[in-house]
Specification:
about 120 residues, 5-stranded mixed beta sheet, 4-stranded mixed beta sheet, 9 strands, about 40% strand
Length: about 120
């Protein structure tokens, strides 16, 4: 009886040890989020440098006339993020996946503009 018990115990021990098949831990993202606010009828900051893959988050307030703001990138290219429709409050984000200079304006308030430089 003792002969049969030893292989059983060895099998139980091996099963209890298990193995880690989850693989290596993926690298932590180094991408960051930067904030741009609307203060009155200006973007603050109006000019921002970010790295490839970073997120820019615009936070909106009503503006001097309470009509809100939008973000329209100009000129449009294949790598330009989608525009942001008029918002009176809240926020909207865009991830920049291409290097370059991205100019933007608020169509509601002429002269309200900004620039994102992706390095």
């Amino acid at each position: 009886m003792r002969v049969r018990f030893v292989p059983f115990v060895a099998l139980v021990c091996l099963a209890a040890c298990g193995s880690d098949t989850s693989g290596p831990t993926p690298p932590t993202s180094t991408n960051k989020t930067v904030d741009i606010n609307t203060i009155g009828d200006t973007f603050a900051p109006a000019f921002q440098s970010v790295s490839l893959g970073d997120t820019v988050r615009w936070s909106f307030s009503g503006g001097s006339d309470g009509q809100g703001h939008n973000v329209r990138f100009t000129p449009r290219t294949s790598s330009t993020p989608a525009d942001i429709n008029v918002l009176k409050t809240g926020s909207a984000s865009r991830v920049f996946t291409a290097k370059g200079t991205f100019n933007y304006v608020c169509d509601v308030h002429p002269g309200m503009n900004g620039q994102i430089v992706v390095e």
